[in-house]
Amino acid sequence: MKKLVEYIPLAFVFMFMACDNKAKTENAATAESDNMIFAKGEKITNDNFTGTAWLNSLVQADSINQNAVGSVTFEPGTRTKWHAHPAGQIILALDGVGYYQEKGSPKIIVKKGDVVKCPANIPHWHGASEDTKFVQIAITGREKGETAWLETVTDEEYHGKP
Amino acid sequence: MKKLVEYIPLAFVFMFMACDNKAKTENAATAESDNMIFAKGEKITNDNFTGTAWLNSLVQADSINQNAVGSVTFEPGTRTKWHAHPAGQIILALDGVGYYQEKGSPKIIVKKGDVVKCPANIPHWHGASEDTKFVQIAITGREKGETAWLETVTDEEYHGKP
User: Fold this and answer.
1) DSSP state letter for B44
2) In which region does residue B88 sit, left (phi positive, over 0), alpha (psi from -120 to 50) or beta (all else)?
3) pLDDT over 70 (residue A13)
4) What is the pLDDT of residue A23?
5) Which of residues 67 through 106 in chain B touch A, CB cutoff 8 A?
């Protein structure tokens, strides 16, 4: 029995090593899940959104390229007003779960990896789902003018059946 | 001493639990790092690339939107030929470490979260660094025609000082 007792300190050393590695790995995993590709940018302060959203303006439209590109982070429950883009828009869903709806069509659920092509001048809205944030890249052609902002998305519209 | 000996089986149970959790966490971390937002798509088989690259064509240019959007994954050492876009291109770096070079300028290092705006008709190339893959979203206007493919990027050009 004495021989086995001699292993007790060694056993505790192994326990400590295992736990220590586990803690490091968990920290790395947490950092990874928080580590978005693009920073969430500045809080949007205009009244074109219901709720809290953040914009990181990645590319300004200019004479070199007529597209504006931005990363938008919608906190849960947050959505845009109804609006329309004179040259349309492409949405790339980077993270979370969101909604997208065109006037006259049911809202659709948009998840990480989904792509939406929104035609020119079609009123629509997008945003996060009730319980999960939504992160999107928006690619918006500015060659035909600025976004036309329309009415607020009502709670009834927002919570409508997908 | 007998009392301490009684803890030996318990110590081994804790060791096993700690190691088991560690293994699970490491697997999750590996899955997370492999879990790209967009699938890498199809292996590119044309001769416009040196090395191995993959294309996931997310958006085709059409009458609704004149931009094509694709996710390209370059394996380490892989690069495009020199080429030029009649309406320019926007590159969003999603993962890894890559290179971008315009004719007459030094190559630059492009990393996860970086954005490059490539002017119209400027010959350039892009690709992965020697040791690390590179994943990018390319936004390419098709309204002025297709990409003009030029000469191969030599090893000297590829390995040039950033």
Assistant:
1) P
2) left
3) no
4) 38
5) 67, 69, 87-88, 90, 92, 94-95
- CA gap B120, B84 in Å, rounded: 7
Angle value at C-alpha A57, between A53 and A63, nearest 5 degrees: 145
Structure tokens at B36: 């790209």
- CA–CA distance, A25 with A17 (Å, rounded to integer): 12
* B141: contact with A, CB 8 A cutoff: yes
Task: Write out the DSSP string of B10-46.
Answer: HHHHHHHHHHHHHHHHHHHHHHHHH--SS---EEP-S
Chain A: give the shortest CA distance to residue B37, in Å.
5
User: How confident is residue B6, by pLDDT bands cut at 50, 70 and 90?
Assistant: low
* Chain B residue with the nearest C-alpha to that of A135: B37
CA distance A25 to B132: 22
Asked if B119 contacts A119 with a C-beta cutoff of 8 angstroms, the reply is no
Structure tokens at B116: 């490059």
| Phi, then psi, of B18 in degrees rounded to 5 | -65, -45
Task: Judge residue A129's burial from the number of C-beta atoms within 10 Å of its C-beta, 0-12 exposed, 13-18 middle, 19 or more buried.
Answer: buried
Rounded to a whole number of angstroms, the CA Rg of chain B reads: 23
Within 8 A of A37 by CB-CB distance, chain B residues are 37, 94-95, 112-113
